[in-house]
Amino acid sequence: MNLKEAMLDDIREVFLDEADGSVRAVLWREGYAPVDILVNYMAAGTVVDTAAGAIETSAPEAEAASADLPGASHGDVLEIAGERYEIIGMHPDGAGMTRLVLSLDGAQ
After folding, report:
1. What is the pTM of this model?
2. 73 alpha-carbon distance from chain centroid
3. 5, 23, 76, 108: most buried, per Cβ within 10 A?
4. Predicted pLDDT of residue 19
C-alpha cells in the first residue's frame, strides 16, 4: 500500500463509521455498475454544530470519501435506505471528503 492509499483508508476510518452513524449507500452513474459506499447522511432540516455555531441543512446532504466518487457528477443518483436522491451539488473539501447536496426531485 502506498502513502496515498494509506491516507484514503485513514479518511474513511476517521470520518465514515457505521458504529458512529454512517450508512450504506449505492451510487448509480449512467453507463457504470452501481457502487456501494459509506456516507454520513443528513436529512433536510438537520441541525449541524460547527465552530461558528449551529446551522440547519435546507436540502438532504451526504458526505462521502472523495475517492469513493470517481466520475460522479450532477444528475447521478445516490440511494440511501431505499430512497433515491439526485445529486444536485458536489462540494469537495480538499482534504479527501465531498459533501453531496441531494434532491428527491428527478431521481430515477
Report:
1. 0.80
2. 12
3. 76
4. 87
Residue 7 backbone dihedrals phi, psi, to 5 degrees: -65, -40
Asked whether 38 and 64 are in contact (CB, 8 A), the reply is yes
- Digit-by-digit pLDDT tens for the chain (108 residues) are 666 666 656 777 778 988 889 999 999 998 899 999 999 999 887 666 666 666 666 789 999 999 999 889 999 999 999 999 999 999 999 889 999 999 987 666
- Please give the grid coordinates belonging to residue 9: 483508508
Task: Spell out the domains of the chain, with CATH numbers in brackets.
Answer: 3-103 (2.40.10)
Q: Residue 81 — φ and ψ, nearest 5°?
A: 50, 40
Spatial contact of 100 and 90, defined as CB atoms under 8 Å apart: yes
